[in-house]
Amino acid sequence: MKKVVLKTLAGLFFVSALPAQVIAQEEPTTIADESETSPLRDRAEQVVALVNGEIEPEEVFTDAFLRAVPPDQFKAIASQLTSQFGAALSVESLGSPGATRSALSIRMEHAITKGAIAIDPSSASRVSELLFQTFDPVDDSLAKIETDLAALPGKVTWWFGPLDGTSPPIASSRAAEQMPIGSTFKLYVLATLAREIAEGKRSWSDQVTLGQARSFPSGMIQDWPENAPLSLHTLASLMISISDNTATDTLIEELGRDAIFQTVIDSGHSQPELNNPFLKTREMFLLKAGPKGRLETYQRSDADVRQQILEGIEDVDVPPNKVAAAFSGAPVALDVEWFASARDLANLLGYMGRTADPQAREIMAINPSMSKERREKFHYVGYKGGSEPGVLNLTWLLQDKAGRDYALTLSQRDDDVRFDPSSLELIAQRLLAYQP
């Protein structure tokens, strides 16, 4: 059986028994004759009922689908959809009703959900693929969006607006408050590298060798052989596109903590001292998965003592399963993190626009965390996000068709509960679709 995928990043829901690239991309046509039936249309109608919780997933999906995405997991996804966009009402359009795979649009109370569907004729025409990709809000408003953001659990902050400073933000709340941002901190590493390249100090093609110290996933090069040659461009691309932690730590080692911390200051960070010393990812993992006493000492210490604690910590051998266990439950020590306010991150993107080599924007665009259809609204889309239990950040750099740069950045923090990230991700999609 081929790999089955479930993706919920930034409002994109994909469930399939086949790779994503096989999804049909044909243009949907509105179904004019409600009396026309076909196996595909019948299953599409069942998806409407399924999203509303009126029938069970076992009645609709293939066994392969259900093995990959158990019924309770799909019900949780459906619940997130209906909580954001209301009940599913009807099949809005189906590209090829007589086929086995087609584009699909479903009308919900407050959005048109666009994606794709496929059925397996050898399995009683059950659904083998389902894609909920784009959500076009209906009768939405900025006030509704911000009300829903404020109602999320924990603390939520956001900033959405132009970077040129000539007009106020479109939406903003608690934008000056410091928040843990997870892997979004890697933008500070990218900004430092891209500035040094713009200044002629380095080149994207410069080679570094992979050392002994490896971080923990996410990523891939933690399993690569020692002394493997890697270009700065490759390391930066892996760091941003798949959030490779070992690539990140390799760049931090190459650039130096001091240079990156200076970028934190120069970009206009309102409380740069919160990021001193500037942690490597491996150090953060080892602090939180290591002895409780060491973690507590680090939490209450100043920058000098923290630096002393970090010296030699990378030599500690901690099994990967112990690290994974430390991050599999409730939030852990969210004050041991990388910090920025929403406004700080907007300032960073503006700083990069002034100082970074243009390749940095191309690297940020590798994984834009946005559907192709939504991206067509913009001239450019770049993205970096970050998370750990109790922490979520989503940050986009956007350029409209007139060439004006915007930032959308949202953060959520809950020190007590591991929240579901899909709620913030779905609301972010509504902001990205918002038309003033």
From TrEMBL:
Signal peptide: 1-24
Ranges where the Beta-lactamase class A catalytic domain occurs: 171-366
Reactions accelerated catalytically: a beta-lactam + H2O = a substituted beta-amino acid
Gene Ontology terms, MF aspect: beta-lactamase activity
GO biological process, one term: response to antibiotic
One Pfam assignment: Beta-lactamase2
UniProt keywords, alphabetically: Signal
Protein name per its UniProtKB record: Beta-lactamase class A catalytic domain-containing protein
Organism: Erythrobacter longus
Organism ancestry: Bacteria, Pseudomonadati, Pseudomonadota, Alphaproteobacteria, Sphingomonadales
